[in-house]
TrEMBL record:
This is tRNA-splicing ligase RtcB. Its cofactor is Mn(2+). Keywords: GTP-binding, Ligase, Manganese, Metal-binding, Nucleotide-binding, RNA repair. The lineage of its organism: Bacteria, Thermotogati, Synergistota, Synergistia, Synergistales. Mn(2+) 1 binds at D96, H204. Its EC number is 6.5.1.-. It comes from Aminobacterium colombiense (strain DSM 12261 / ALA-1). GO terms for biological process: RNA processing; RNA repair.
Amino acid sequence: MKNLLKRMDNVRLLLEKEAFPGMAVPGLIYADHYIETMLEQDSALEQVAHVACLPGIVGYSYAMPDIHWGYGFPIGGVAAFDVNEGIISPGGVGYDISCGVRLLSSYIKLADIKPVLDALTTALFSAVPSGVGSSSAIRLSLKDLDDVLRKGARWAVKEGMGMQDDLDRTEEGGCLDGALCEFVSSRAKERGKNQLGTLGSGNHFLEIQVVDEIFDKAAASQMNLESGSITVMIHCGSRGLGHQVCDDYLKVMRRAMAKYKIDVPDRQLCCAPIQSEEGQQYIGSMKAAANFAMANRQIIGSVVRDVFAQFFPGKPLFPVYDVSHNMAHIEKHIWEGRKREVCVHRKGATRAFEGQPVLIPGSMGTASYVLVGTKKAEMESFASTCHGAGRVLSRNEAVKRTRGQNLVREMADRGVTVKADSFRTLGEEMPEAYKDISAVVEVVHQAQLSLKVAKLKPVAVIKG
DNA sequence: ATGTGC
């Protein structure tokens, strides 16, 4: 399929409709020549073509430069579906519903943090539970959990964990209206009940960083970012609760496919019409899981603040922004001069409305970026941009290659303190398992889907 | 991603 790509310019490739039978729209892949060489054999591109076959798709089946193979839809994929004729698909959101990033900033300087770095990192590691299956000290009744699912980060602030400014600097104010907790299974609730305030595992992390480079002074100052100052990045999602919601609704959608006579090229793309009862129940449950994820990041941010306050009294941590990388939203867009209401699936992709902060976490030991959304993204990609470096090695392949390596020491040699819950996860997350994040960011910057504001370098990282 | 796996 790779030789069916037509280069449009330095950062855009077109996958024409002729590439795969049934494509209703072409594919649009954001890639320069380096990213093009990184496109996996074919599997992720095939997934771009498959998504283009789904009912009601508008515009293109998009792939951001961090694209790699995922469940049904590629990770780094974006697709908008007409609200009346289109579908909603759990595979287009991903297993970790509303996995995302929260960034806090400070006026603490790198030199001030160096003498206490080990103690601070250890304190953060013990204050924020991490790892697969980790649980927190926050024990909720099912009634309280329903409140979290309805109110999101607002619930945490109401309980004394954070402030109004945090909500003002969170996507959707930290709470999605229309969450339907009555359609979230009791199994999902049971799994999530004791996991609020936990980091999880995989690519999730809690990182102390320093602002290494500023590209846009005005935007950086609006976001409370200044060169040489410390930031804290929190990357996590909806834990077992979101995972179970995805699992539950994949089953629901498989049944709905027969009921609504929807035909798709891959079973993993199972979906239902947006306006169907199954579609509406998934959307309500997905929103509930997203509220859980936003509450989770709000709580972790609050715990991080408490720990920092012990080391740096009187030097607060300010909210920069909190944004999701795995979500579907009903949004109004103008496409080919026509007002359209669409359901935009962003799976491993970030919303990028004009002026909105975009947070791009790097892989372990590498830089992260802050960008800002653009009018161009609103016009061209349903206000979407990339979400990270994107894998080039599978988890298994990465672990194989780390045999005999001491990743903690290698990170220390790079000047990054690492504390981890699991050696296996460290191997999966080795830097070589990912593309060069700077190259990914350069593509979306050149395509003007979002513009570079600041580069953040890791100082200490906590991995689940 | 995940009370990790056919």
